[in-house]
Backbone:
């Protein structure tokens, strides 16, 4: 899996969650995980989570760290597993690095003990790939719910992005290798 930290700020509006985004916009071909910093404001026209659409939930924040992951020739179930794996890796990373606040995962979301939300996430599929958008708050400004942020946790966004991408790429490689060493059942 290829990874790329994009230094340029990009505001996420949901249109970035599309097949070949990493390749067409950033030159990253193949299975990939890219990350960038920017505001988040997903309109209902670009919202793909049925639950959020039914509840008319706002998805926004003034400063977030975004990850877009794409893997090919997999189904949506695999995409949701990938989404939850990323959330688990992010939880581990936060709890290793933050001396202030501990985080726990519930499904694909991350929360503090006092139920403040750190992340947003969605997995979706296309004809040729599954994609995940995972994002964490850098600050608590502009969020529609009570949140906790990387600033609260004392974690630098660029460090978090690079380390989470490294850990995710390593885990994907390890999973692929595990599938290649097992004899089939007869």
Residues:
């Amino acid at each position: 899996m290829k990874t790329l930290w994009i230094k340029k700020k990009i505001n996420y509006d949901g249109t970035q969650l599309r097949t070949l985004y990493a390749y067409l916009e950033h030159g990253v071909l193949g299975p990939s995980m890219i990350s960038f910093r920017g505001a988040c404001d997903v309109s209902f026209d670009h919202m793909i989570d049925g639950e959020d659409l039914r509840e008319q939930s706002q998805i926004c924040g003034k400063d977030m760290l975004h990850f877009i992951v794409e893997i090919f020739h997999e189904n949506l179930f695999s995409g949701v597993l990938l989404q939850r794996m990323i959330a688990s890796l992010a939880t581990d990373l936060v709890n290793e690095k933050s001396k202030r606040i501990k985080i726990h995962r519930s499904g694909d979301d991350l929360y503090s003990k006092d139920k403040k939300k750190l992340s947003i996430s969605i997995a979706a599929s296309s004809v040729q790939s599954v994609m995940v958008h995972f994002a964490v708050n850098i600050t608590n400004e502009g969020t529609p719910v009570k949140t906790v942020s990387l600033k609260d946790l004392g974690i630098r966004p660029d460090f978090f992005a690079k380390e989470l991408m490294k850990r995710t790429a390593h885990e994907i490689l390890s999973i692929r290798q595990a599938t290649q060493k097992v004899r089939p059942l007869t």
User: Anything to note?
Assistant: The domain at 2-172 is CATH 3.30.930.10 (BirA Bifunctional Protein; domain 2). The mean pLDDT is 96.
